[in-house]
Structures are given as structure tokens and as C-alpha cells.
Design goal:
It is built from four helices and seven strands, in the order E-H-H-E-E-E-E-E-E-H-H. The chain is of the alpha+beta class and 146 residues long. It has a seven-stranded antiparallel β-sheet with strand order 1-7-6-5-4-3-2. A hairpin with a 2-residue loop joins strand 5 and strand 6. The longest helix is centred in the C-terminal third of the chain and has 26 residues. It starts with 8 loop residues before the first strand and ends with a helix.
């Protein structure tokens, strides 16, 4: 599964993290732990370890989101998606070991009536959100590897 490349809002970003791939993966896939390192996430919960078909619930930016894991290839790729107040999102994360760290890539697409109505505002919001997420992930992973 991949993002919807025809969606009105798409963000792609990446960051190099100097930490073991497993450390990064464990932080990223510990949904209940997100609020401890991700200031934009107000709450997050899951019923157990993530796997294909797992559902988790979280709140961010005033949105109550229910996401379903569509792909799970530890520690290299996870895809989740789902609806939130009329916005349908698909979010892909990939981790690739490099000589000087782990390249973490993210891509997300948003579609739905609210997105069509506020494309520029929501594009900016998603760009900022993913940039902040990557920077917080980098900071958390690199400091836990010390």
C-alpha cells in the first residue's frame, strides 16, 4: 500500500537519524508512548503490539483519529491510515540503514471534502506536522542511544 498520489494534499519528508534502526523503530511503533516525546500528540492508545490489522486511537490538533495498520515490516516499513472528521489519510514510514545512520522517510496523503475545501491551509499543517514529528523522533532516538 502507498499514499494516494492523486490526493489534494501530499507531504513527503525525510531525516537522517544517528541511532540504531531498532531503537528508532521501537520509539515510532510504541503508540502509547507518543505523547511522551511528541508534543503535538495529546493522547494515544492501542490494544497491544502493532501488526497488520491493528487499530490505534490518538488525538492531535483537535482531531480524534482511528488508524489501522495496513502494512508492517519490522523494522523497515509501516503503513497506517484511516478517516478523521472527513479526512482520509494514508501514512507510510520507511527506515533504511545507511553508512552514517538511518534514513527515515515519511509520506502522507490526505483527501476528502475538508481537504478539498482548505487545501492550502491543510497542506501547510501537514508539512509542519511531519517535519516536527521527524525532528522529535530524531531527538528522542539519538538521546536514547547515548
Amino acid at each position: 500500500m502507498d499514499i494516494n498520489t492523486d490526493a489534494p494534499v501530499i507531504t513527503r519528508d525525510e531525516i537522517l537519524i544517528s541511532a540504531p534502526i531498532r531503537t528508532i523503530w521501537d520509539i515510532q511503533t510504541d503508540v502509547a508512548g507518543w505523547p511522551s516525546w511528541q508534543p503535538d500528540v495529546d493522547s494515544a492508545e492501542t490494544d497491544g503490539p502493532l501488526m497488520v490489522g491493528s487499530v490505534f486511537r490518538w488525538q492531535t490538533a483537535g482531531l480524534d483519529i482511528t488508524s489501522t495498520v495496513e502494512e508492517f515490516d519490522a523494522p523497515h516499513r509501516i503503513v497506517w491510515g484511516g478517516p478523521a472528521q472527513g479526512i482520509v489519510a494514508v501514512h507510510v514510514w520507511t527506515l533504511e540503514e545507511q553508512a552514517d545512520g538511518v534514513l527515515v522517510r515519511t509520506a502522507e496523503s490526505w483527501e476528502g471534502d475538508p481537504v478539498t475545501a482548505q487545501r492550502e491551509t491543510l497542506q501547510s499543517a501537514l508539512d509542519d506536522s511531519l517535519r516536527n514529528w521527524l525532528q522529535n523522533l530524531k531527538h528522542t532516538a539519538e538521546h536514547s542511544a547515548d
